[in-house]
Amino acid sequence: MNPANPRGRVFRYLSYLADAESGSLTCRYELDGREFAERFTLPPGPRWDTEAARAAARLVFLLAGVSYYKTAAPPVIDLSQTALTEAELVFLREFYLQGLGEFAYRNHLDLTSLRIEARRGQAREPARPEPAGQRRALVPFGGGIDSIVVVERVRRLADTALFVVNRPGDRFDAIEAPAAVTGLPIVRAEREIDPQLLRSAELGFLNGHVPVTGILSAIAVLAAVLEDRDAVVMSNEWSASVPTLEYQGHPVNHQFSKSDVFEAAFRDVVASGGPSVSADTDIGTGAAPRMPEYFSWLRDRTELWVGREFAALEQYHGSFRSCNKAFYSEKARRLDHWCGQCDKCCFIDLILAPFLPAGALRRIFAVTGEPLEDAALAGKFRALLGAGAKPFECVGEVSECRAAVLLAARRDDRADGAGSALLQELAVEVTGWPDAPSATDAAAMLTPVAANFIPAGYR
């Protein structure tokens, strides 16, 4: 890379190789002569040799490349021998452009001229519908309120297993503790990124947010194929589709790969099973293989709805943790409790406050104190309410945060006292705004608010 031109010239997809015996997938890329390799390890077995597994492994290869492209964000991506259908080409370009929207915004880059060079393959006939039978779901699990609520709903409808991705030899207590509470089996994948990425500053790489949920989604589809499961059930709610901000006429969404736009496009790409191409390339001919369904069970639900549902799941109240400081890659920096100060802590406290007693939330945030009782965090709460820049975090939409403030302020145990001062102050401010939600608006947020892609057997 030329330090005077950090953009680079060409990013190339080189190859991917699956090994059924070791249960590994290795993906190789190159940027201006520098090679990268990423390795995934999943359960070994004969299903690696199926056409569905090959199609799923190819999707992992396509989406995982974004982590290495962003090291220099060149204007050209060369797929080399990997053919794409027209739909896949459109999907992949949007995955890069919108998935790297925050990265481009923070690094003052314009990626809109990105060109993807790839051989064209023909779309195949869709697979025949799967006969009705017992549902077998795989639920990616992060230990937060969204995935906990989804697990408790889906397990009523299907034989359910959790899906967890981690680095080799490293597991997050914030995931493992609530996962243990579920009592469900866990399908695990290990993801080993190229060590060069850990030297980004030293090597002069560009750095920033990537659409990691998209990558994890592709790995989950592969895991579902290997485990003979019919669905990957995500926990991405309605507000994930709302952009964090608008910049130069384009939406910038921190949660793009949790959005309805991503879900709809990725569903189609998964179902297509890859292109029909000649025998000397990487995918097959004839009809597409039967692939797992991919959908979010929360697509039409608000975080306010999720908060209400989670409040009733008392068995998880002592183990769940959504604080980002529980997920630092460096173990020495990783907290074993809520930090009580970050945007995620503030949001979780706010969205649960209408539905949990104040005493219960004080116990959850016992180590550092409940955020809503800390006047110094007023600015963070005002940002969640729309009176400041929305944080680049996985937090709810402005209107549901405002409804949460008003609902929480009306609780008897939040009506007075020093601990309720900030909440009552925020409620007074929100009530005075011309677009303050009414009681009817708040009630509407506790019902489905949009369309979803949930197949009949999972409704």
Question: Can you characterise this structure?
Answer:
- With 459 residues, the chain is α/β, with parallel strands linked by helices.
- It is 33% helix and 14% strand.
- β1 and β2 form a beta hairpin.
- α1 packs antiparallel against α8 (212-226), α3 (86-99) runs antiparallel to α9 and α5 packs across α10 (303-311).
- The model has no long low-confidence stretch (mean pLDDT 94).
How do the SSEs run, as a string of H and E?
EEEHHEHHEEHEHEHHEEEHEHHHHHHH
Q: Could you name the ranges where pLDDT drops below 50 across 5 or more consecutive residues?
A: none
Strand order of the largest sheet: 5-4-1-2-3-8-7-6-9-12
Per the principal axes of the C-alpha atoms, what is the gross shape? globular
The chain-level structural class is: alpha/beta
Q: Describe the sheet with the most strands.
A: 10 strands, mixed
Radius of gyration: 23 Å
List the helices and strands and how they pair.
Elements: E1 10-19, E2 24-31, E3 34-41, H1 51-64, H2 66-69, E4 76-78, H3 86-99, H4 101-106, E5 115-117, E6 136-140, H5 145-154, E7 159-166, H6 173-182, E8 186-192, H7 200-203, H8 212-226, E9 231-234, E10 245-247, E11 250-252, H9 260-272, E12 293-296, H10 303-311, H11 343-352, H12 358-364, H13 378-384, H14 398-409, H15 421-431, H16 439-444
Parallel strand pairs: 1-4, 4-5, 6-7, 6-9, 7-8, 9-12
Antiparallel strand pairs: 1-2, 2-3, 3-8, 10-11
Helix pairs in contact: 1-8, 3-9, 5-10, 11-14, 14-15
Q: Summarize this, please?
A:
With 459 residues, the chain is an alpha/beta fold. The chain is built from 16 helices and 12 strands. β6 (136-140), α5 (145-154) and β7 form a beta-alpha-beta unit.
